[in-house]
Amino acid sequence: MKMVETADLCKSYTVENREIRILDQISLSVDAGEFLVIAGSSGSGKSTLLTLMSGLDRPDSGKVLIAGKEISHLKEDELAPLRNAVFGFVFQSFHLIPSLTALENVMFPAEFRRDPEAARKAGLLLERAGMGKRKNGFPHQLSGGEKQRVAICRALINEPKIIFADEPTGNLDSAHSRAVLDLLFELRQEKNAALVLVTHSAEIADMADRVILLRDGKIG
């Protein structure tokens, strides 16, 4: 089953009255359970492609389909529940809510769905991530690796069908990177979720089922 499909995606930005084409007619698909890496040099369009595939931004032209449903032109109130129920997001900069504890950050997407099991599920995920003893810590009290593990738990609490990860180990040392990747891969495999991961790392790319290389906004 095709979980994600894009058809002829184009995206440009205007900088100082000059149009810069970031993505140029990108077409690809991701199967259920597949681990796809999007690779390429800085400025090649990797993160932009991820934001379009995940509905965080809209293409200038082209289509994005999730499980056969086009999302490119959905309104925000239609996209929000889809993103919360079907997608999980892991960002390089964590995006944790500073005023919430680790446990509360992980619970947040499940509470949005009014899941009565939110606290229990969040606690179990944090235990598996080795963060059980840190669940009451606030983001400013956590290391980078701890924050990223919290972010992964948050991304997975609603058992998403697709996980989008943008340089999830980019700010971490090698030991923390390995722990974060192990957690992400383990939980993804259990739920047979598709994983779409942007990275510069050749080591991570070697683990993928498939690698797409972007060059100047095109698939190389």
Please identify the structural class as seen in this structure: alpha/beta
Helix content: 25-40%
Number of helices: 7
Low-pLDDT ranges: none
What pattern of helices and strands is seen along the backbone? EEEHEEHEHHHEHEHEE
Biggest β-sheet description? 6 strands, mixed
Strand content: 25-35%
Give average pLDDT, whole number: 91
Instruction: Give me the count of strands.
Output: 10
Give the end-to-end Cα distance, rounded to a whole number of Å. Answer: 25 Å
Q: What is the general shape?
A: globular
Q: What is the rounded Rg?
A: 17 Å
Strand order of the largest sheet: 6-7-8-3-9-10
Describe the structure.
- A 6-stranded mixed sheet has the order 6-7-8-3-9-10. The protein has a 4-stranded antiparallel sheet with strand order 2-1-4-5, covered by helices on one side.
- Helix 3 (102-112) crosses helix 4.
- It has 220 residues and is of the alpha/beta class.
- 42% of the residues are buried.
- 35% of the residues lie in helices and 30% in strands.
- The chain is globular, with a radius of gyration of 17 Å.
- It has helices at 46-53, 76-86, 102-112, 118-128, 144-156, 174-191, 202-207; strands at 2-15, 18-31, 35-40, 61-66, 69-70, 87-91, 162-166, 194-198, 210-215, 218-219.
